[in-house]
Amino acid sequence: MTAAAYSAPLLDAAGLGKRYGGVVANDGIDIRLDKGRVLGVIGPNGAGKSTLIGLLGGAIAPSAGRIHFEGDDITALPASERARRGIGRTYQIPRPFLDMTVAENLAVGQFSLSPFISAATATAERRDILDRCGLADAADVKARDLPLLRRKRLEVARALALKPKLLLLDEVGAGLIDSEVSELIALIRSLMDGERSIIIIEHVIRIVKECCEGLVVINFGKVLTKGPTAEVLASDEVSAVYLGTSHGGTAKASPIAVPSTTDDPAPSPSATTAPVLALEGVSAGYGQARVIHDLSLSVMPGQVVGILGTNGAGKTTLAHVISRSLPVTAGSIRFAGNDITNEPAHSVAARGIAHCMEGRRIFASLSVEENLEVAARHVRAAERKLRLERVYALFPILAERRNSGGTSMSGGQQQALAIGRALMAKPRLVIFDEISLGLAPVMMDRLYEALAELKREGLTMLVVEQDVERALDLADTAHIINKGRITLSGPTSVVRADERLRHLYFGTEE
Amino acid sequence: MTVLTSQNTPQRAISIRSPTIRIVIACTAFAVLLAAPIVLPAYFVEIGFKLLIYIVLAEAWNLLAGYGGLVSLGTSSFFGLGAYVTVGLINHAGAGPLQALAASALAGIAVAIVMSRGLFRLRGLYFTVGTLALAEALRLFVINVPWFGGATGLFVTVDLPEIAALFRYATLLLALAALVMALATGSRFSVLLRAVRDDEDAAGQVGVRAFRIKLAAFIVASALIASAGGLQAIKLGAIEPYGSFGLQWSVDPLAIVIIGGLGMRFGAIVGAVLFVAIGELLADYPELHVAITGVTLILLIRFAPRGICGLAEAALRRRGAAPREARP
User: Fold this and answer.
1) Residue B261 CB: number of other CB atoms within 10 A?
2) How close does chain A come to B193, measured CA to CA in Å?
3) Fewer CB near the terminus (10 Å): N or C of chain A?
4) For chain A, what is the domain count?
């Protein structure tokens, strides 16, 4: 390269494009980033943000465009060479080295880049990174044994072990409660030392607002707009395609058309006396660690129950206990009058409990339609078709993509598929576990509209949720769980007014 | 097992984990092995030789599959290659056994490098099938090209060393294998190798040049396997394509490592001892031998996927962890 090196930006991507067959994931994207700057990339699910990270990190070969890093053309370099030049990335869905300890996961990058680094230096660096990422206590734990959110932290830590000049963060804030978001923001800020540049893809607007100087909004694989953060977030165009109701301040969109399948109005929760689900004194955990203690709750037919709490409070564990994918150590669970405490997961599913699991769990080798049909494989073809049509009415995007591979869709579409799959079994109770995790605000709106519609149809739901506002809007009653015990329950209006709820937001509970 | 030093582990004065102690134990073991043929009856020296060859093959296979995730069915290709190179050099170039064995190791390395371009494009099962095809192709090559005696094979035309000498060669080869394995599995290289095994793409994203890492493991394993093949050829005095390139040389190391413990440091040794012992005890009932090995494999894969060493480690951990977990 010529004398350009001095004034050239750290990263200069011009006309980047990526096609998958006929599908255009990225089209003519230009991104310039100077040394020491932090750029945010936002956009709806499926806009092509993760593809962009892949293109910059080298995991995906571009169909068009060039990428220059520190003045050199790196378009043709594989991921490993880009990493060695100082581009570190995280995966949106964490991909740690599962059979290695957390410390070893970090050591991979260290030993790869500097094989002869002194052991003491390497250890000190690792300890520092793990401290900063809140993983200090897990250094000797196998990555396989980390829960999802800690794996996300490990993604960041592993990228930091490269001491990258350019750090690409792909939705590392998803699923965090407010206090954890604050920690993450503090971490990102501590990385902004004037030398390191960062690109942040994020749906948590607070992170974008507080960390990024500039924003690029991507929609349908193209740059919709770019500019200083505050300006971009204030623009009408952006709130229309991305922010939706919860942040834009506009009134809730027109009521959605309800398919005329609801012949009778939703039964009032108090009308029936027998609960459809009743937990009594349930305790459960993993190995030695007890996560849930002596927990009792009941769900009436047609009722929507919200389960709220901080990360690690035991919400997901509770969901697994109810769907019987985790054994209980004490207590009993009754469903529709039957004791299901010791029943295996598949027979509980046959009784009518559907579990929409955290992390979606879509079958990658099946198409969208096959993914849906799997859940209703024992019903007559005509009935199956009927249910399929109902799901497609709820999520038209699934009808459009019915022949695509299950995991080829964006995060939000996959989540819609996971919900649709749960509904295909025509369940009597659906457990929704963290369905908003990692979704664009506008996509969350859509999913919650769908849930509200299901509620009107009289579906009984247990909603495990990080997003307190949305859960309270939807639910009839709510329980707040802390350290495996219910600390507050009641109708949503009561819970909403309670002082203890505020602690949830700020993470100050006890 | 871990390469990284943890600050939390208290240093004990004398421990099996101390490197000095380990080296002393290993050196003593090899000294005993070198002296063994003097006192052992010929029958046991024969079995011992077989055992040593199997341990070397299994160590090499464990390095590839257990640490590198490269599940190979191509052991026989390098084994046969070593056999033909060794016999050829002894017969036609007047090479001594050690020279011939070193040359077969080099031949193994050369073939590994040549084949790596193609083989490493394949991942997972496809790699496995690719290595199987390599073995088959080499065997057909040897049968059909006129220089190698066709399906009849070759005879060693010079006087063969005594079994005691061969046993010592095998011991030296094992010592070499043990040294290489200690370096490859206890070093920073092993961290990179295991990262490639766990997720090759993610390893690339943190700067690991997966191709080079895999090639290094492949080269080391191929050299060891080819030398073992050469040694076996000297022992037999005659080689033919179906024996030297036989599928059993690919399958037996796999069975041994799965019995002993895939990716476990002592998996190869434990597995080989058991495998050879079962083979000798049931030498008069070959069908039963195959059946018992098969049932053992099925049971282990179902109930102890990390083999006997995995079971032992879990048992040790339970005992060792009990007092530690009492701490809040």
Assistant:
1) 27
2) 9
3) C
4) 2
Co-location of A54 and A159 in the same domain: yes
For residues B237-248, b (16+ Cβ closer than 10 Å) or e, as one string?
A: eebbbebbbbee
Q: What is the pLDDT of residues A311-333, one digit of tens each?
A: 667 888 888 888 888 888 888 99
Determine contact: A298 vs chain B, CB below 8 A.
no
**3-class state of residue A55 by DSSP:** helix
Q: Residue A386: inside a domain, yes or no?
A: yes
For residues A195 and A316, membership in a common domain is answered with: no
Alpha carbons B246 and B139: distance in angstroms, whole number? 9
For residues A236 and A306, state if they share a domain.
no
A446 closest CA partner among A455, A436, A431, A456: A436
Q: Are residues A228 and A309 in the same domain?
A: no
Domain hosting A415: range is 302-324+352-506
Closest residue in B to A109 (Cα) is B206
Token digits for A199?
Answer: 């690109």
- The reply to whether residue A97 touches residue B199, judged by beta carbons under 8 angstroms, is yes
- Identify the residue whose tokens are 């590994």: B112
What are φ and ψ of residue A218, in 5° steps?
A: -110, 135
- B199-230: pLDDT as tens digits: 999 999 999 999 999 999 999 999 999 999 99
For the domain that residue A105 is a member of, what is the CATH number?
A: 3.40.50.300
* Domain closes at, from A243, A259, A290: A243
pTM of the shown model: 0.74
Contact A188, A38 (CB under 8 A): yes
Per-residue pLDDT tens for A86-125?
Answer: 999 998 888 999 989 999 999 999 999 998 999 999 999 9
Q: Of A228, A243, A258, which residue sits at a domain end?
A: A243
* A97:B201 CB<8 A: no
Residue numbers of A between 205 and 224 with CB closer than 8 Å to B: none
Kindly determine whether residue A97 and residue B203, on different chains, have CB atoms separated by under 8 Å.
Answer: yes
A75 and A143 co-located in one domain: yes
Measured between CB atoms, which of A100, A115, A288 is closest to B198? Answer: A100
Is A267 a domain residue? no
Domain boundaries, chain B: 24-247
Domain for residue A25, yes or no?
A: yes
